[in-house]
């Protein structure tokens, strides 16, 4: 039975099948940090999921999925109610999938395949016939799916621990961060460039974008989101969003909700 009681426990590594699927909804859920022997594809059908990895922050708006390779520690936080699908692939199959964490856009064909596998019996035999073709198509579609820039690298320098410990808070302006950590702007920029591949200002803008999507996807208005992220007006926020993603917040959410 793929729809499980959320108060129960579920261990995908306890099954023998090539792939295990789960379809369920959770509200205000925090998985805590954990890992699996299997690789996992987590798909946010409705709602938004924030995933914290050892060195990255990941966001899953509606219609996006994240591939998490085997033995990758992660923590999933779901605000409000999230309708999601999760597939766990046995380690030998995971070797055919990406080696690193990847956020992808779930297009109609992959969505249909995910739904079929998520609703299958936990003890299904995937080695032949229709099921083997379905599994092969799923792997092919995951590998070829368009990637989304919903991964934010995190710096590991101990001087920035206070920043990365509160990733739901607005990162301060550079001059404020200088005073807080006792390092110059040049030093902070050099740390970010080395450890994240981007300067602090670019990193902060990417954080703002991801947080904006999270707030909007969980039902907050454009006005609330703009104020929360310290934009001077709704129009300035919309212009920022369009510059970052090439579309307005409204059109982005509309496409995300076409499930």
Compact summary:
The chain is of the alpha+beta class and 259 residues long. It has ten helices and eight strands.
Number of helical segments?
10
Low-pLDDT runs: 1-7
Query: Strand percentage, roughly?
Result: 15-25%
Broad CATH class of the largest domain: Mainly Beta
CATH superfamily grouping of the largest domain: Regulatory protein AraC
CATH architecture label name of the largest domain: Sandwich
What's the helical proportion of residues? 25-40%
What about the largest sheet? 8 strands, antiparallel
| Inertia-based shape | globular
- Elements, N to C (H/E): EEEEEEHEHHEHHHHHHH
| Overall radius of gyration | 19 Å
What is the domain total for the residues? 2
Strand count: 8
Compute the average pLDDT.
Answer: 91
End-to-end separation: 23 Å
Secondary-structure-based class equals alpha+beta
Under CATH, the topology of the largest domain can be stated as Jelly Rolls
Please, could you describe this protein's structure?
The protein contains 10 helices and 8 strands. The chain is an alpha+beta fold. Strands 1, 2, 3, 4, 5, 6, 7 and 8 form an 8-stranded antiparallel beta sheet that branches. A hairpin with a 2-residue loop joins strand 3 and strand 4. The longest helix has 18 residues, at 200-217.
